[in-house]
Structure formats: structure tokens, C-alpha cells
Design goal:
It is a single chain. The protein is α/β, with parallel strands linked by helices and about 450 residues long. The protein is built from 15 helices and twelve strands. The chain has an eight-stranded parallel barrel with strand order 3-4-5-6-7-8-9-10, surrounded by seven helices. Strands 1-2 form a two-stranded antiparallel ribbon. A two-stranded parallel sheet has the order 11-12. Helix 3 links the parallel strand 5 and strand 6. The N and C termini lie far apart (about 85 Å).
Length: about 450
């Protein structure tokens, strides 16, 4: 059968519908995932078209997936994180949703306090076990959407759930029906999709979800979860690892509209950001992220990274206040006590600090030479220099003003006694054979010595 595609406005074949393949033995893709070897990346040289939706956005899992890998946040910390997310996302709500747990009294108190703020964005959603009682709990809290786990690979279906594919599908569809009955929009988390039999289970299952959604008149969101970070963004990669293939396939063979399609990735192979961006490019409206990338094992897609990916693709921040990213980093460090690795892009202590003497000299002359963009404007963090033998009085004064964020009359200049004291000490260090840049802690200790 030929139909005009609403996405491409071209005649496309719709003659073949994939059926559930209820195999007797699990397909674990041992040629790709042998476990004793590095996972292999097979190519089939099939290209699918780029088709980024008109609207793309970010969803957040800091308080759900992120919170599973750190000490639990207090109610006050959760409320502050929620407010920071709202400010970062801006008036257009580019950070569209954030998800909460609902199981404990503390979880529910945090939700209620966030609801009392009356903020439009991000919308509060939840993640629950798939049972009737939990759906009713979500409804009674006034929450419209919840995530439910629908594991999609045979690793989970056969080896964890101890079920066949048809039994798993029946269980999942029953949970979605319970959500409909409770009046809650289900968001189906297709766990481990990058090890799943895409045409033998994923597509037939999502097709059934689409039928249920149409019959009930309630939308079903599909979250494609790269649970182990196996996704690959390159063109012409074969399934199940192909991010372009997964997104295209869900749209082309299951008719999932972009606004109902979301990518959730992990960073086990350093591909979280590129995979999330690829999901946008190939048709998913939403990418699911966590502040600072905090999450299971190597973490989730860093939300702050996708703020800048968004601006890079769209040519605008669309009202997002990127300077809030620095406030978020400070809050996690100073209030929560989270240790951010210093080289972490956008939020680490050294991300825009140069240590090489020749680089510091160039930065002092024109920061654009060695700074990625105007970090003062976009992140409220000026470019920094590490103090070396070539820094001179001006370089030391620059370091002090930026390190301590001194402004106005509190700023020091190169003639300040403390600057000259530091310059004398720095000179002695290098006269005695030092080769490396001085650390912030060493300089802080000398300033403390000067102030005695």
C-alpha cells in the first residue's frame, strides 16, 4: 500500500508490517556482544535520512536516574534543583519535563513543594513500577505523565524477567492499559534498546502501543533507552547499535511522531552527547539528560552539554539562561558536596583555564585565541590562566580577580602588595628549577601566608 508520509510528504510503501517473533532462544547478538571482547560496530551501508523536527527540547532525569547514583538529595535540595532547571530552561520551556520518584514520604513532599511553586516548566513527571496502585498514586498527586519500564532486549526479557517475548509484551501492554484506566499518560522506557531485536520485538511491540493509544485517545510516549551506552551515531551502522536506524525505524515502521519520541543514553563509551544529538537530527524531539551527567555507572547525557548542542543546531539559545549552568555547578559543589572533575566541559574548575605559558600569554592579549566562546557572557565565567613563570604581575592579578571573582573596588591590580608578594614567590619557585604551572591551592596558601 502506498501512503503520503506526513513527515516527508512523499509516497512511501506501507505494505509490510513487522510481526512479533516469539523465539524459543534469546537473541543476544553474540557476534556483536561477545562479552569477553570489546563490542563490535557492524556496518550495513544503509543510510537513513536526517530529519530534525521543527521543535526539539530537553527532558531531565537528575532527580530520578541521576539520584540513583549519589547520596539522596534533601527536599530542600530537590526544590532548589527544580528552580534552577526552570530558570535554565527559560520562558519557552526548552527543558520541558523532569521526572521524580514517588515512593517515599520525602519524594512526595518534594513533589508537592515543587508543585506549589506554580512553575510552568519543567513539567513534573514520575517514574514508577507498573502496577495499578502506583498509577493511582501518580494520578492523586495531580501528575499527568509517568514513565514505566518495558525492557526490550532478550537479555532482560529472557534472562531477567524469565519470560518469552509474547509474555513480556502481554505484561507491558497490560501495564499501559492500567495507566489509561487511571487517566495517566504512559511514557514507555524501552530499556536496553541497543541490544534488542528491533524488527522481531521492538517494532511489533510499539505498533501495538500505537493501536492502544489510538483506541484510547491517550498519547503514549516512547523513550528509546541506550541503557549500556552501546549506541553508535555514525551513518550506515547496522542495528541494533545504530542510533539513526533506531530513530528512523520507530518513525517509519511504527509511525511514532517526533513529539512522542525521546532518547535516553548513557556514557559508557563516551558517546552520550553525540548519540543524543544524533537522535535529534534523525527525528526525536526530546533527549533525556541529567545535570552534570550524573547517573548510573558512567552517567547520563549531561544536560548542560545539550543546552549548547541545542544552540549550535538552532542558532539560538531560545531564551535559555546558560549562566545558570555555573550556578548549578556551584550549588552541587558547595551545597551538595559533589566533586566535579576539574576538566569537565562548561562546569569543571579548569574547563576554560589555560596552563601553558605561551597559551596564557595569548589569552592575556586576546582571550578569543584560546577560549571556546565568550564564557563570561554565556556562563558568567571568564577565561582563566594558570600562573607560570611567564605570567608576570598582570597575569597574577588576572588570576586573583577571576579565581576569587573580585569585582569593582575589590579588584586587585598589578601594583597591589599581595600581587607583588606572589610574584616574588613565583620567581623563586622557577629559579629553583620548577617547570610546571602553579596550582590554585599553592597560590591560595601563599595568599593566606601574606594575610597572616
Amino acid at each position: 500500500m502506498l501512503e503520503i508520509s506526513e513527515k516527508t510528504n512523499l509516497l512511501e510503501q506501507k505494505s509490510y508490517k513487522y510481526q512479533l517473533q516469539d523465539v524459543s532462544e534469546p537473541n543476544l547478538y553474540r557476534d556483536i556482544y561477545s562479552y569477553d571482547e570489546v563490542p563490535k560496530t557492524p556496518f550495513n551501508h544503509r543510510r537513513v535520512p536526517i530529519g530534525m523536527p521543527e521543535e526539539i527540547w530537553i527532558t531531565d532525569t537528575t532527580l530520578r536516574d541521576g539520584q540513583q547514583s549519589v547520596e539522596p538529595y534533601s527536599v530542600e535540595e530537590i526544590v532548589e534543583i527544580y528552580k534552577l532547571l526552570s530558570r535554565l530552561g527559560g520562558p519557552k520551556g526548552i527543558i520541558r519535563q523532569t521526572e521524580f520518584f514517588v515512593y517515599s514520604k520525602k519524594d512526595r513532599e518534594a513533589i508537592e513543594k515543587c508543585q506549589e511553586l506554580g512553575l510552568e516548566f519543567p513539567e513534573i513527571t514520575t517514574w514508577i513500577r507498573a502496577n495499578k496502585e502506583d498509577f493511582k498514586l501518580v494520578r492523586d498527586l495531580g501528575i499527568k505523565e509517568t514513565g514505566i519500564l518495558v525492557s526490550s532486549s532478550d537479555y532482560h526479557i529472557f534472562n531477567k524477567l524469565k519470560k518469552s517475548r509474547s509474555e513480556a509484551m502481554k505484561l507491558y501492554l497490560s501495564a499501559v492499559y492500567d495507566a489509561f484506566e487511571a487517566g495517566v499518560r504512559p511514557r514507555c522506557h524501552l530499556e536496553d534498546i541497543t541490544r534488542a531485536d528491533f524488527y522481531g520485538f521492538v517494532v511489533p511491540f510499539v505498533n501495538e502501543l500505537q493501536k492502544m493509544s489510538q483506541d484510547a485517545g491517550i498519547p503514549v510516549k516512547i523513550r528509546a533507552c541506550d541503557t549500556m551506552g552501546y549506541g553508535v551515531p555514525y551513518p550506515e551502522v547496522a542495528l541494533p547499535r545504530s542510533v539513526p536506524g533506531i530513530i528512523y525505524g520507530l518513525q517509519h515502521y511504527s509511525d511514532v511522531p517526533s513529539e512522542m519520541l525521546e532518547w535516553h543514553g548513557h556514557n559508557d563509551f563516551y558517546k552520550a552527547v553525540s548519540n543524543a544529538t544524533t537522535a535529534w537530527l534523525y527525528g526525536a524531539s526530546a533527549v533525556n539528560c541529567s545535570l552534570l551527567g550524573i547517573g548510573e555507572r558512567t552517567g547520563n547525557v549531561p544536560l548542560e552539554a545539550m543546552v549548547f548542542e541545542y544552540a549550535s543546531l538552532k542558532g539560538t539559545l531560545d531564551g535559555m539562561d546558560s549562566t545558570v549552568i555555573t550556578e548549578i555547578a556551584d550549588f552541587f559543589k558547595e551545597k551538595i558536596g559533589y566533586n566535579i572533575p576539574p576538566m569537565t566541559p562548561f562546569v569543571g574548575a579548569n574547563f576554560n583555564v589555560t596552563r601553558a605559558g605561551i597559551h596564557a600569554d595569548g589569552l592575556l592579549k586576546d582571550e578569543e585565541i584560546y577560549n571556546i566562546f565568550n564564557t563570561k557572557k554565556l556562563l558568567n565565567r571568564a577565561a582563566g590562566v594558570a600562573v607560570t613563570k611567564t605570567s608576570g604581575l598582570a597575569g597574577i592579578a588576572y588570576w586573583m580577580n577571576e579565581h576569587y571573582r573580585l569585582k569593582g573596588e575589590n579588584m586587585v591590580d598589578k601594583r597591589s602588595p599581595v600581587v607583588m608578594f606572589l610574584k616574588d614567590w613565583v620567581d623563586r619557585e622557577y629559579e629553583n628549577g620548577r617547570q610546571t604551572a602553579l596550582t590554585d591551592k599553592e597560590l591560595e596558601a601563599q595568599i593566606a601566608e601574606f594575610n597572616k
